[in-house]
Amino acid sequence: MNRSEMMAAVKAEMPERRWTHTLGVMETSIILAERFGGDPERAERAAILHDVAKYWPTARMETMIKEHGLPEELLRYDKELWHAPVGAFVAERDYGVSDAEILDAIRYHTSGRERMTLMDKIVCLADYMEPGRDFPGVKHIRELAEHSLNRALLAGFDSTIMYLLQQGRRIFPLTIAARNDLILHLQ
Ligand code: DGI
Ligand code: FE
Ligand code: FE
Ligand code: FE
């Protein structure tokens, strides 16, 4: 599927405001890829698709996780996490994406993971700091992102983890692993 067909199909899967967010993640992924030596075209491709499953009914995502061998551990954590691995599956099956790095960037854009690739980091950080985002700390994340992909992403995970702690919610282990690993590799 070419870029504009993909954009039209993804747009049809979501409300207007989420499509605006997606456009912001696309634009920010390109900027971050250019800044940090990534591949802007492939990062943008991942950004187009990253939230493709965001508005799927929970039951549909749950069925897909069970039927297609996606990690069932996810079902014991926040539903907000599910659209990422489901999105990667849909990107491959329905959008014909075969680039493993693009699929991983979609798969891990919410949770993060240990040893994130450059593309994982770009898409995850773009998701945190695209121009439409407004949450406490987003300005600091954008400032850090002027110079350090790792420090900015770490600040993003910190803010998510603090938010989940405040809410008394469970934290998916990959998010903890992603944060620990970023700290270990801060130069
Ligand atoms: O899909 P978006 O809204 O653009 O952003 P996202 O895919 O990063 O989803 C973020 C939401 O996921 C945010 O509201 C926090 C929630 N969430 C719930 N449990 C976890 C989690 N996020 C992470 N990173 N780790 C969790 O364990
Ligand atoms: Fe998302
Ligand atoms: Fe995110
Ligand atoms: Fe998003």
From TrEMBL:
- Keywords, in A-Z order: Hydrolase, Iron, Metal-binding, Nucleotide-binding
What is this enzyme's catalytic activity, as reactions? P(1),P(4)-bis(5'-adenosyl) tetraphosphate + H2O = 2 ADP + 2 H(+)
Extract the Pfam families matched here: HD
Note the InterPro entries from the entry: Diverse_Catalytic_Enzymes (IPR051094), HD/PDEase_dom (IPR003607), HD_domain (IPR006674), YqeK (IPR005249)
Q: Report the enzyme's class at the first EC level.
A: hydrolase
Q: Which CDD domains match?
A: HDc (cd00077)
Hydrolase as UniProt keyword: yes
Q: What is its EC number?
A: 3.6.1.41
Is the tRNA processing keyword given for this protein?
Answer: no
Alphabetical list of Gene3D superfamilies matching this protein: Hypothetical protein af1432
* SMART domains tied to this protein: HDc
- Looking at the record, the residues that make up the HD domain are 18-132
**Family annotation (NCBIfam families):** bis(5'-nucleosyl)-tetraphosphatase (symmetrical) YqeK (TIGR00488)
What is the recorded name of this protein?
bis(5'-nucleosyl)-tetraphosphatase (symmetrical)
Supply the source organism for this entry. Paenibacillus glycinis
